[in-house]
Amino acid sequence: MSDDHSSFGFSTRAIHVGQDPEPRTGAVTVPVFQTSTFAQEAVGKHTGYEYARTGNPTRTALEAALASMEGAAFGVDFASGLAAEDAILRMLRPGDHIVMGNDAYGGTFRLISKVFAPMGITWSAHDLTDPAGLGAAWPENTKIVWAETPTNPLLTVIDIAAVADVAHANGALLVCDNTFATPYLQQPLAHGADLVVHSTTKYLGGHSDTVGGFVATNNAEFDTHLRYIQNAVGAVRGPWDVYLTLRGAKTLAIRMDRHNENAAAVVEMLEANSAVSSVLYPGLSSHPGHEAATRQMSGFGGMVSFRAAGGRDAAIRIIEKAKLFILAESLGAVESLIEHPGVMTHASAEGSPLEVPDDLVRLSVGIEDISDILADLEQALS
Ligand SMILES: *Cc1c(COP(=O)(O)O)cnc(C)c1O
Questions:
Q1: Which of 22, 204, 297, 309 has its CA 20 to 30 A from that of 149?
Q2: Per residue in 85-131, pLDDT tens?
Q3: Domains in the chain: how many in total?
């Protein structure tokens, strides 16, 4: 993996690492290598590419760029965020235990509790904002602590370094889902996480046009495991989808600057609106995780959740009244989205320790003009 550009800044690396001009033609943009197989010069003598499940040059470019953005030595691309999570969880064996946050992403909870639990892997949900409490109640055989920060959809902030210390003191790994923050705002490996996972469907791709997942690590053994699973299980993407993520990732920094700015203005407006009972955003000094967020993030991101003063029905009315904000699942793209986590993205957590309040509204604040964003929310709240 090329690290010729390792001394460059974040955006330079996003635009150049793994993306030297194509040697045969000089094409400046990484080509979409739309091929399933690669000609070999002699039996067993190949270019490094044999079959496209195992490796494709477009995918290699994306893996190098995203790894560099995370400050990681290694990175592996997968068919979706959940396929990336699955590849990590396949390190576990029957009898092993997973500790997850008590507001983990609904799909992560479903994967662990419905797919891995029947295979003999046990789990428990904990308040990861209290690392000392976790250490005191440490479940036996825990091999992985699975943390998200900020969390989806409650925007809870977890102190990565403190949770990493507790995990490591007990012989477990820390996996950090960095989907909400993105590597531009937060690099969990630098704070002690062992593996970073992304749904690149969200901010890294940034345009709501492709589904993908990614894992970054500095540990060569984990990289070998992930590569093995990538090839052996085969949850890989076609080159067009990989190309779209590579194109999206180049502009991550400027998009995130705008997301940060727009979200801050939305938070200020919501805080002053009587239809809103509380605003959940790590940038608020009243947010319980504000101090940790300030330490480990360079900006607070584009995700904002709030609770409707009028309860569940009011929340649904607000969501359905929004016009510019599109009513849809997913997040992290150029357009603003609005949703009801209780009924939509987090329905699989109903009745579990991970259930979310039913008056909660989640916003993915886009990069449209802030005057249009504010006007739409104001009419929806009125
Ligand atoms: C969307 C999401 C995932 C799952 O990723 P997919 O690409 O949808 O499979 C995992 N974690 C978080 C925080 C997400 O928002």
A1: 309
A2: 999 999 999 999 999 999 888 899 999 999 999 999 999 999 999 99
A3: 2
Q: How far is the CA of 214 from the centre of ligand 1 (A)?
A: 10
Q: Give tens-digit pLDDT for 260-275.
A: 999 999 999 999 999 9
> What spatial distance separates the first Cα and last Cα of the chain, rounded to whole Å?
53
Alpha-carbon distance of 83 to 74, in angstroms, equals 17
Query: Ligand 1 in contact with 80 (CB < 6 A)?
Result: yes
Q: Measuring from atom 4 of ligand 1, which residue has the nearest CA?
A: 81
213 and 336 share a domain? no
* 240 and 261 belong to one structural domain: no
- The residue nearest atom 5 of ligand 1, judged by CA position, is 81
Say which DSSP state 45 is in: B
> Does 179 sit in the ligand 1 pocket, CB within 6 Å?
yes
Closest by alpha carbon to 171, among 132, 133, 131, 144? 144
Amino acid at 86: D
CATH number at residue 28: 3.40.640.10
Shared domain check, 173 and 102: yes
Question: What domain range is 324 assigned to?
Answer: 253-381
